[in-house]
Queue: 4 jobs
Job 1
Amino acid sequence: MHSLMKVEVMEILFNLACFDEVRDRLLINTTLLNYITAHLQVSNNEDDINLQIIMFLGRVCSISNASTISEVGLVENLCALFLDRRDDVDIALQSLYAMYCFLAYDCTRNALLQQFEKIVHYIVELSQVITSLLLPFKRPLQEVEETKESLQSE
């Protein structure tokens, strides 16, 4: 299947996954899980597809399929890809969101915590970079808040 078509299909599945009954069946009753497991690999250089898969995993993770996500090794694959693609901000941020979603369920949380030592340094590093990028906006926001307060006191 052409790479662009794969991306489009994953986007469609991502949008369908907002419906609970569809979301719960997407991974359990299809071969989609095999496809995702095969493609969410460090060796896969198709970052657009990886990004769509990561976004999809964040959306579909639920109590009914968290154990399946954990059992097939998708948590480990996601963490490995997160570390490998450090320079890709989109993959890094979507991976963090998917990891956040994984924390809600015991089996995915346990699998994620097993990877914690590997990823914690990069998460801290990433938060420092984001903080440094936001610092220039701190002063203008303070001025807006001060202006707002002075207008309210009048």
Job 2
Amino acid sequence: DFGIGIINYQGAILMGYQRGLELGPLNKANDIVLDQLESYKVDAFRGMADTMRVLFRTLSGEEPIDWELLDKASRRDVTKETLDPSKLLADCMFFITSVEVALYHRRYEIGEGLLRNYIFLTGEDPSAITRFLRTYNVGIFAASNYRETGNRHCLPRLRKAIKQLRHIIKTRGRIWAHRTLLLEAEQLSITMKNKLHSGIQHAYNIAIIAATKAGCIQDVALANELAGEHYARHGCKAMAGSYFVHAVDYYKAWCCKSKV
């Protein structure tokens, strides 16, 4: 059936994005979906493709980011709304792709609001990819919040996320094991008293190596960026600069617009 084929094709594009494939080819593949939907006059499946198009084009710099829209969406409380079941897939994709944009640009407050709505909308979805995205992003935001606020309630959330990711990886495959390693590096960076301990650098480097072996370009870039932020925060300009240079190079290889 056409509908099943389109959904599977879009699912492959989403998986390609999560596996770190370049944004340019993913955007072209997604445009093929939109062309097919237009040719066959099928609007029921446009929501996912439309949101993926916005994600690819905003990250690559082809379109500006509508921060006002994302901020407004982050303040929504979907638990109190009457939801249209026919738009559920589109809504889920809007929230998770918007989380990706907010994460890349370090707009954590907006990202957390978007993530809360995504978690609610996908609460009944048992798929590994959905569970992984929910848990991984909870961990990333928990680490960033702890740094910014010192709120110790963030640490249990981070530890729980790491534990859950280990279980998902053990039972459903190891293709994102490097993301668990990155969260473990983040945990070390905020819990170790000696912020320049070699164990922290080792943890980040292990995450970088694992992401490189997995071929996940954006996660190699993110791990370098987070490591650079850690050392910049604690006055090690040379180490921070080295990590930041690698982050920029990998984001460029991913066809992503530089933030600097």
Job 3
Amino acid sequence: MGKIDRDMLSIAGEFAVASELGRRNIYAQPTFGHLKRTDLLILDKTGNLLRIEAKGKQGSQWPNCKGISSPNSIMVLVDYADKGNMERPDFHVLTLDDWLSEKQGNY
């Protein structure tokens, strides 16, 4: 696959996460804009709101990862590196506990 334009990479990652959630029968509502740390909103079966921040990459570094701010937020890393046009990206899901453990070097 050719390189995804940098401006398109973030939106490609967001919609890849929304698509994957839809495949699993989970409705995800995209949010738009660059001044927030929420790309998708989902409601769990009990009505609790979960905020998702999606980060896409196609090289060796994850761009602009500032962390996870609350227990009701998760980060989904979407890896397009070495993927063909017909291949799905790899997804890595991090909770607040995962992020804190990573910062402490426990991974």
Job 4
Amino acid sequence: MKKKDSTFISMTPLPAMVILVVLFFIPLMMTLAQAVFHDGRFTLSFLKDTFSSPYNLKIISFTFKQALVSTLFSMLIGLPGAYIISRFSFKGRKLLRAICTVPFVLPPILVVLGFVIFYGNSGFLNRILMSVFGLKTPPLRILYSFQAIIIAHSFYNFPVAMNIVSSSWEQLDESCEKAARTLGSGKVRTFLSVTLPRLAPSILSSATLIFLFCFTSFAVILVLGGGPQFTTMEVEIYNQAKRAMNLNFAASLSLMSMTICLFVLGLNTLLQRKAASQARIGSPTAPGRKLGKAGAVLTAVYIILLLFFVLAPIISVLARSIISSSTRSGPKLISFEWYSRLFKGSTWQAVLNSITIALASAFVSTILGLSLCIWIRRHNNSALEIIAMLPMAISTVIIGLGYYIISRYLSKSPDFLLIVLAHVVITIPFVIRSIAPVYRSLPQNIMNAAMTLGCSPARTFFSIELPLLRSSILTSLSFAFAISVGEMNATMMLSNNRLETIPTVIYRLINSYNFQGACALGSVLIVICFAIFLISESARKRSAYV
């Protein structure tokens, strides 16, 4: 029985390991080779040229600048919510948590579209302000500026700070604070000397993760930046590879980007472990305090502002999709013209392409991720888990670049297949994060009892383990589908305008100022994303009762 068990466990994940190496590491090596090889000879000239050019150094400097400022503002928005959620019990607590989930559900191109429609010069916010105050020109000119980038990144990332810090805060034992207060320490001093040092690892962990997301941001910079003065490394990688056709320079920038991201991810891992060790000290205290009058007012204001900040751009997309006018200054009319156009021509084909690619990549990545989880769980193999999670440390633009380099060696580039494979690499880490924790929590004694009673390892897996993992597998499928259907970065790198998806068509419509068409297609994407979110939430709740 032990021999059979060993054979089943060792052989099941083997194909997944091989496929992971082929799909992730080979394109990555192709990119690295492009940076240090020319005509078959090793050279550092491309790297030297990349890091000696004033223009390139300006791009690198701006990438760090926008990521740091975006991280700061994301933390400033998210930390008050973390404090409120973790320490107080009130009626709007579930609403506040629900607000945090909205940005996670939305692809970046939808966030960009929402900001254009709501904050633009002719957007809803400016029109409201002009109407209320009788102004003739838009008072807010936010778009295509540094401020627009920071606001969009803050919108997308403040929930990261809120969720990570509130989770750690809830796990802290309050006895230390109570002891400090008993010894005469005031509230501020107790927070600064007792609470803050214990929260520091989780605060820094969330900050490094947000920095990583902002550092590798692509769609937000590409659309809201508005020009070369706001170009980041990821946008420049795309420009050099696709527009200038300078793959060596694109690969050199990619090498630096990967090095920085891997360092930040390693730092984040260390901080997560430190935060986890802090959480284990003492016993956690559930939020039970009641808000005072002043606290209730401030909390209500905070929630209202967050609701406005998060929901206004999304509602604007839905509203703009059915509002049109015959002329720029003409009366606004309700029209479903663009929804009818969705079912005609290339736009409908883009919807079908997105759904087909998402289904294929979600199915493949879930099978591969589940196979890897078998080995990770049975052998408690953290090394394999780290390797499988590495695609999270590499930007999707760079993953797309690797496949784009491979496509240049093929006589006929199979766009559909390459995009699916790139999406599989991108989604595998999320599949493992969905399945592995649930798999680890399954009681081993049930499986041992089944095999003691004569069940083979394969039968034990399919008849006992797999049914118990059903909800987490459905959740991973949902996550993978949602990520793939909204993915634009790698798709733009690979499509060559021959194969369009929903995000790439939205980007094209934004560039051509066809905002009603972009909003109609964006509304379809919103419905798809929220439907997938509801499915995954339903699966998660069912798994809680297993």
